Amino acid sequence: MKTMTCKQLGGACDAAFRADTFEAIAEQSKQHGMEMFRIQDAAHLEAMQRMRALAQAPEAMARWLKARKQAFEALPED
Predict the structure, then answer these.
(1) Taking a C-beta distance cutoff of 8 angstroms, is the pair 12, 43 a contact?
(2) Nearest 5°: CA angle at 3, between 35 and 67?
(3) How many domains does the chain have?
């Protein structure tokens, strides 16, 4: 198991996600983001806006995603 925070994944808080794979961590982060959107958390809405802007440039988004995955892989096991 490895742990990444919402902030490490481009979000706005220190909520921790734990999983064996980056894909599983990303799914947990997505669910967290959906909840933050549902409650209209201002800090998370700002982070989502930054991610939307990044998504407008597919190459930049791919580089960002690759960097997050590499960061996950470099983490020690919990």
Answers:
(1) yes
(2) 90
(3) 1
